[in-house]
Here is the input.
Amino acid sequence: MSIELTHTMKDRMEDFSEYYAKFLEDGSCKAVKSRALLEEIAALTIKIERDIYLRLIELGYIEEAAEFLKDEEQETQTFHADVIDIRQSN
Here is the structure.
């Protein structure tokens, strides 16, 4: 498990927050950079979640790891359902 991932995530979140605030304020900052940062944050989230899952197993917390994996699966299904709803409403 790398603490560096969390530091990188924090940096990307701060960058995103600045770009997004500027975008909301006056639209001068294009959403392209914000979108790229969000994609990077999503990828980092997945890596950190994987590290947590593997660490739970390494520590012998099998039930917690199974529950963690179950929660992740449910969140993924909810996300995909939301995307479908958005596409259908447009």
The mean pLDDT is 81.
